[in-house]
Amino acid sequence: MLAALPAACCGCSPAGLANVLTPGGYKRIADLPYGTLPRQRLDLYLPAEAGADTPLVVFFYGGNWRQGSRENYPFLAQALTSRGMAVAVPDYRLYPEARWPDFLEDGALAVAWLRGERGRAAGAPQEACFAMGHSAGAYTAAALAYDPRWLDAVGTPGGRNALAGCIALAGPFDWTPRDEPLATIFAPAPGGRLDAAPSDAALAGAPPALLLHGDADRTVGPFHSVRLAERLRATGGAPELRVYPGLGHIGIVAAFAAPLRALGLERAPVLEDLAAFVARVRAAHARA
Length: 288
Known about the structure:
Layout: H1 14-21, E1 26-33, E2 41-47, E3 56-60, H2 74-81, E4 86-90, H3 102-115, H4 117-122, E5 129-134, H5 136-146, H6 149-153, E6 165-169, E7 174-175, H7 182-185, E8 194-195, H8 200-203, E9 209-214, H9 223-234, E10 240-244, H10 251-254, H11 258-262, H12 270-287
Helix pairs in contact: 3-5
């Protein structure tokens, strides 16, 4: 579940190359502490025309719960800020320091901080907030949306209702890992199971979902998103599911990189589908 772009040149990390070639157009507020631990820090990106009604996307990266850094994702933040969204990218505790549910607690704490007074003072917009993630990060985003205890436990204003929606890219949502170190990472979970939505009852009234997956994903099979969509529909939800032909596990996040889009190397409309989903959810909130 690596959250990096395919190798593209010698002597430069793939994400680093994408970031070097990515245009600006946003304001970055870096290294904001949302907790007291070393990895409880986030970067906040604001579009040039940010205002009170700017939606906020909290993006949790992947990396198999063992690796990853917020410093790798300016390319994704640029893509979203270019569509008028603010973006927060938190770091969170990783193995071997962390086990379940440490990373979920960190994710919830980051959302609570952004939606509270300190986040507001740092510049975080207080309008619609979306939890978004790729791979392991998609599991965190879904757990925050579909298991109310995490946001409730950290005193998030409004609890799960603080989230306007969940955007999950190539996520594993229910699975019992057998291989190490994943078995050790999830050993504290009930039954050693990774389950973003342990209760069907909790799915009723959950935030709207956009589930994105590539049908060529050999790391996290698209059946994960299909199965979660079925559960959401069975409990009265109306999730939006997109399964992109020929797209793999890394390609779905690489689709946000401006250089690939500009060169026509990434044609999957991941960014367009995400922006349209955010616009629909905001319009529905405005009518309510």
